[in-house]
């Protein structure tokens, strides 16, 4: 990623402040504006590698933190790392075995890009839907959900689906997002509960 985009001020700041990637500042910005994390929340971080969001989360809550990624995540004190595909039932059951009650699900995952804008956007939205379905499954009522997405033709459908399941849903572009990127975040607060969600 560094070679593709160059080393901007957030890259340099992450190096000097000990975060594993510049993405840490996206979550810090979201927390400052929306207060999604409470000090005792149990949190699942999907697409967590290399672990910068887990580093930030560890400073925000005393609750349990489980990070999941296809790539191994180097250990972070007082967190659990799972290597695997969070869209599979096997890995979802493993996540649930480590965390008895989930207050927040965050997802900064994105698929490997092919260079075809429409294809990549479709794959990103597909991954978003998988993360959303997982969040619906595990979140307790009143829980929060944050997910990275990309603006495009299928974005509004995803947004509407999420709005059916949460009382408050906002779209936000972080101050640390790169110029020219279509990246955006959906901030969903106060989960209605699984039984109130659409079929």
From TrEMBL:
The active site is at residue 148. Keywords: Cytoplasm, Methyltransferase, rRNA processing, S-adenosyl-L-methionine, Transferase. It comes from the Archaea. Pfam families: FtsJ. It is found in: Cytoplasm. InterPro entries: RNA_methyltr_RlmE (IPR050082), RNA_MeTrfase_FtsJ_dom (IPR002877), rRNA-MeTfrase_E (IPR015507), SAM-dependent_MTases_sf (IPR029063). Transmembrane segments: none annotated. HAMAP family: RNA_methyltr_E. Belongs to the class I-like SAM-binding methyltransferase superfamily. RNA methyltransferase RlmE family. This is Ribosomal RNA large subunit methyltransferase E. It comes from Methanolacinia petrolearia (strain DSM 11571 / OCM 486 / SEBR 4847) (Methanoplanus petrolearius). The gene is rlmE.
């Amino acid at each position: 990623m560094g070679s593709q985009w160059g080393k901007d001020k957030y890259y340099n700041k992450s190096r000097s402040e000990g975060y594993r990637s510049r993405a840490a500042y996206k979550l810090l910005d979201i927390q400052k504006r929306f207060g999604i994390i409470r000090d005792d929340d149990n949190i699942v971080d999907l697409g967590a590698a290399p672990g910068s969001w887990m580093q930030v989360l560890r400073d925000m809550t005393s609750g349990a933190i489980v990070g999941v990624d296809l790539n191994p995540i180097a250990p972070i004190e007082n967190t659990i790392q799972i290597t695997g595909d969070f869209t599979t039932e096997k890995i979802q059951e493993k996540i649930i075995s480590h965390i008895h009650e989930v207050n927040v699900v965050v997802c900064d995952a994105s698929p490997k890009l092919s260079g075809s804008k429409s294809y990549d956007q479709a794959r990103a939205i597909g991954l978003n839907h998988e993360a959303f379905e997982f969040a619906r499954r595990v979140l307790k009522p009143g829980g929060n959900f944050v997910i990275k997405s990309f603006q495009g033709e299928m974005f509004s459908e995803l947004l509407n689906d999420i709005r059916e399941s949460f009382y408050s849903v906002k779209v936000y572009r972080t101050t640390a997002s790169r110029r020219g990127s279509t990246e955006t975040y959906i901030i969903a607060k106060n989960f209605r509960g699984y039984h109130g969600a659409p079929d």
